[in-house]
Amino acid sequence: MNQLKTLILAEHDGKELSASVYHAITAAQFWNVPVDVLIAGSSTNDIAQRAATISGVARVIHADAAHLVHPIAEDITNLILTISSEYQVILAAHSSFSKNILPRVAAKLDVAMISDALEIQENQTYVRSIYAGNVLSTVQSTDAIQVLTVHGSNFATAAMGGSAEIINIKAPEAFTKTRWISESIIKSDRPALTSAKVVISGGRSLGSSEKFEQVLSPLALRLEAALGATRAAVDAGYAPNEIQVGQTGISVAPELYIAVGVSGAIQHTYGMKDSKIVVAINQDPDAPIFQVADYGLVADLFEAIPELTAALN
Amino acid sequence: MKILVAVKRVVDYNIKVRVKADGSDVDIDGIKMSVNPFDENAIEEALRLKEQGKATEVIAVSIGTAANQDVLRHALAMGADKAILVESATSIQPLGVAKILKAIVLRKQPGLILLGKQAIDDDAGQAGQMLAALLDYPQATYASNITLENDTLHVTRETESGTEVVALTLPAVVTADLRLNDPRFVKLPNLMMARKKVIETINVADLSTDTDSKLKQLKVSEPPTRKPGIKVNSVTELLSKLRAHDNLKL
Ligand SMILES: Cc1cc2nc3c(=O)[nH]c(=O)nc-3n(C[C@H](O)[C@H](O)[C@H](O)COP(=O)(O)OP(=O)(O)OC[C@H]3O[C@@H](n4cnc5c(N)ncnc54)[C@H](O)[C@@H]3O)c2cc1C
Ligand SMILES: Nc1ncnc2c1ncn2[C@@H]1O[C@H](COP(=O)(O)O)[C@@H](O)[C@H]1O
Asked: Is the CATH number of domain A5-169 3.40.50.620?
C-alpha cells in the first residue's frame, strides 16, 4: 500500500501565501508522513514556487485554472476530491477561507470534521474549545480520513529552506451554480491583524468611526499595531467587520494586546486570551476585561490613550 | 418558494457553562436555553423574504428532544408558518444534522435553506456547508446581506479581508451571520398563538439516515486561566511596567 500523506489546503490572495499556511505546515508534521501543500488559483506559479521552499513540504500540488481566480468552496472541494484518496489527513489553518470549504469536503467524504483544533495528540485525538472558549473538549476520531482546521497561533511558523517538487494537476470544471461577483477589501497600511505583534482593540465606547480612528490610530502608528474591534463597535459602524476579534470574528495572539473601552464579554475574550501581555483600559473597575488583563488601568480612555501616546513619543 | 430554516436549541449566550466534576461533559442541568443566535437571524431573513413576496412559506426545523419545542414555538411566534421537530434522544453532530436536514429537504423541497453560521455550543460552523455538499447545492456562508431576484440569490459574505458577493442559483444553502439583520422581538400574543400551532414531529429513526459519528468526545475540562494581573494607577505606571518587558522594545 502507498504511504498515506497529509494535504494542506493553502490560503493565498493571488499574490502571497497567507501567513497561516506556515503554521499549518508545522501542525502537519505531527503525523510524520509526507506533507503536500495544495495551491489552487489562477496565475499562481510564484505562490507555488514559494510554497515549495518552505521546510517540511514534500510536494506542492498546483492547480492553476482561470475559473479559480476567486476560488469558491464548491470548486475547491471538487478539486480536493480528485486527489483525496492519497491522503489520511486534510488540514488547513482555521480561517474564513478554510472553514467555508473543509466542511463541504468532509461531508463529501462522509467523515466528521474537527474545527479549530488547539492541540493534536496521539491516536487521532484533538483538543478544541467549545462554548466560546469556556470549555475544552478532547475528541477522538476513528474516521479513515481526518479533516480538520487548526488554530494557527498554537503552532510555530515553519521555516524556509525546503525544495519540494511541484506537481501540476488539472482542476475539474467550474461549478456554475455559484458565481463570484465582487469583493470589497479594505486596504490598510497597518500590519495584518493576525500577525501583528501589537493589537489595539476598541469597543463601543469609542462612540463613532471618527473617534475610533482619531483616538486609536496615533497609538497604533507609534506601536506598529493592528487595530481590532468588538462586535458592538463593528455593529455600530465604528469599525469594519473584518477587524472584529472574538468567537465570531478572528482570534489573535500578539505579544501585546491593548483593550480600550472593551467590556470583556466571553465572546470577545475568546479571540484574544492567548495574547502574551494584555492591557485593559476601562473606566469601570468591575469590567470583566480586567480578569484577563495583566495590567489594568481604570481610566477614561479619551484621556488615557492620548496621554499614553504622548508619553511614548 | 418554501424556505427551510434550521434552528438549534443551545445554552443561552449569556450563560457561562461549567464542566461536570467527572469531566464527562458540560453541566447544562436547569440552565436557560435559547434559540442559537445566528439561527434567529436566519429565521428573520426568511420572514423578510416572505414579506417581500419572494417566499410563500417558512418552515422551521429543529433536531433534538421534545424540549426543542420551545425554540420552534419561538420561530412560530416570530412568524414561521410551520415547524418540524426531528426527535432524537442522542445529540447529533453537524454531519448527522446535515444528513437529517437533507432528508427533510427531499421531503419538503424548499428553494432556500437557511442555517446559522455556527452553533454557539459546539462552535463547529459546519452543518450548512455539509448540507450543501450532500445536496450538491451552491452555498454561501457568513451572509450579511441577501437579495433574491428571480432564481438568483445575491449574497454578501463576510470574510477576513472584507466582504465578497456571490450569486447562487436556487435551490441553495445560506448560513447567516449576526449582521444579516436584527431579529424582531416576539410579542406575547404571538407567543400565545404559537402555543396552539401543531408541530410536526418526526422520529429520527424514520428518516433512515445514519447519523452516528466516528468522532467521540473523550472528556471536557476547564481552560487554563490567565495569571491574575494587577491594576496600575496611572499611564506612567502602566508604561514603566510595559517597558520592563524587553521583548516589547518600548
Ligand atoms: C453569538 C454572539 C457572538 C458574538 N461574537 C462576538 C465577537 O466575536 N466579538 C465581540 O467582541 N463580541 C461578540 N459578541 C458580543 C459580545 O457579547 C459583547 O456584546 C461585545 O463584545 C461588547 O462590546 P463592547 O465591549 O465594545 O461594548 P460594551 O459591552 O457596551 O462595553 C463598553 C465598555 O466600555 C467602557 N467604557 C465606556 N466609556 C468609556 C470611557 N470613556 N473610557 C473607558 N472605558 C469606557 C464601559 O465601562 C464598558 O466596559 C457576540 C455576541 C453573541 C450573542
Ligand atoms: N440540532 C440542530 N437542530 C437544528 N439545526 C441545527 C442543529 N444543529 C445545528 N443546526 C444548524 O446548523 C448551524 C451550524 O451548526 P454547527 O455546524 O453545529 O456549528 C446552526 O446554526 C443551525 O442552523
From this structure: yes
Residue of A77, A114, A194 with shortest CB distance to B215: A114
**Length of chain A as a residue count:** 313
* CATH superfamily of the B2-249 domain: HUPs (3.40.50.620)
Domain A198-312 has what CATH class? alpha beta
Verify whether ligand 2 is closer than 6 Å to residue B62 (CB atom). yes
DSSP string, B8-41: -EEE-TT---EE-TTSSSEE-TT--EEE-HHHHH
pLDDT digits (tens, 9 = 90+) for A281-312: 999 999 999 999 999 999 999 999 999 999 99
So where are chain A's domains? 5-169, 198-312
CA angle B179, B181, B186 (to 5 degrees): 130
pLDDT band at residue A2 under the 50/70/90 scheme? low
- pLDDT of A166 > 60? The answer is yes
Section A109-135 average pLDDT: 97
Q: Grid coordinates standing for A61?
A: 500540488
Best of B135, B219, B235 to substitute, by most chain A Cβ atoms within 10 angstroms, is B235
Residues 182-201 of A with CB under 8 A from B: 182-186, 194, 198
Report which of A196, A188, A261, A189 is spatially closest to residue A230, judged by C-alpha positions: A261
Q: Is cis: bond before B171, omega within 30 of 0?
A: yes
Contact: A96, B159; criterion CB under 8 Å = yes
Q: Which residue type, as a one-letter code, is found at position A308?
A: L
| Model confidence pLDDT, tens digit, residues A206-224 | 999 999 999 999 999 999 9
Q: Is the pTM of this model over 0.90?
A: yes
CB contact under 8 A, B226 and A248: no
pLDDT for A186: 78
CA of B82 vs chain A CAs: smallest distance (Å): 28
Query: B106 phi and psi, to 5 degrees?
Result: -65, -30
Query: In what order do the strands lie in the sheet containing A59-64?
Result: A165-169, A59-64, A35-41, A5-9, A87-93, A146-150, A113-121, A125-130, A135-141, B215-221
